[in-house]
Specification:
This protein has about 220 residues and is α/β, with parallel strands linked by helices. It has 2 domains: about 10-150, Response regulator (Rossmann fold, 3-Layer(aba) Sandwich); about 160-220, Arc Repressor Mutant, subunit A (Orthogonal Bundle). It is about 50% helix and about 10% strand. The protein has helices at about 20-30, 45-55, 70-80, 95-105, 115-125, 135-145, 165-175, 180-185, 190-205, 210-220, and strands at about 10-15, 35-40, 55-60, 85-90, 105-110. The model is unreliable at about 150-155 (pLDDT under 50).
Length: about 220
């Protein structure tokens, strides 16, 4: 998962249950390639700790006091799009899964996952990939069969690990929109838009907006 000469993956854990939170800190802290930088007891504290520590990934529960996991995910995705969010919860119903993915979570695991699964999901999410455990995959399939469209899951079918939001911004770039125009249309800060675009350029190996536009045209992402 990580080479000896690579910096460890810096992770913040957020869970309101002390036994779960402390257990995760201990388990993940013992794994090579992962450094737990902080632990939060609620969503607002998670947001504050992310602003302070700037981790690579956040592992969080959905049902927390003060600010729940969905809203926490939504705010972190908007303010820190470069940080991977992995949900770890007891809930695998379609409403919870789809809400978390729509909010910006890259991966979704239930608490049946072992530490190796969690570590793998964190590393994959930090690399721009999505990981769903079998129960969650089954939920998504069932939701699709029932006519529910899991919009964020489409990101798994996008090229080069692009997320749904990144594909949306790439399409706007291809239309000739400027950063301020994109920020206004999506109700995002200019800084957040710039972060998204930097990730888009890296994933699509585009040197400038013209190259990104060509990429969008070649992959029908306009």
């Amino acid at each position: 998962m990580s080479c000896p000469d690579q910096a460890p993956l810096r992770v913040i854990i957020a869970d309101d249950q002390a036994s779960v939170r402390e257990g995760l800190v201990l388990l993940l802290g013992l794994l090579p390639g992962i450094e737990v930088t902080a632990a939060a007891t609620d969503g607002q504290q998670a947001i504050d700790l992310v602003a302070e520590h700037r981790p690579d990934a956040v592992l969080l529960d959905l049902h927390m006091p003060v600010l729940d996991g969905i809203e926490t995910t939504r705010r972190l995705s908007a303010e820190h799009p470069e940080i991977a969010i992995v949900v770890l919860t007891t809930y695998a119903d379609d409403a919870s899964v789809l809400a978390a993915l729509r909010a910006g979570a890259r991966s979704y695991l239930t608490k049946d996952a072992d530490r190796a699964d969690i570590a793998r999901a964190l590393h994959s999410a930090a690399g721009g990939l999505s990981v769903m455990d079998p129960a969650v995959q089954a939920t998504l399939v069932a939701a699709a069969g029932a006519g529910v469209t899991p919009r964020p899951a489409e990101a798994r079918d996008l090229p080069d690990g692009l997320t749904t939001r990144e594909a949306e911004i790439l399409a706007m770039i291809a239309k000739g929109m400027t950063n301020p125009e994109i920020a206004k249309a999506l109700v995002l800060s200019n800084h957040t838009v710039k972060s998204h675009i930097n990730r888009i350029f890296a994933k699509t190996r585009s040197r400038d907006r013209a190259a990104a536009t060509q990429y969008a045209q070649a992959h029908n992402l306009q």
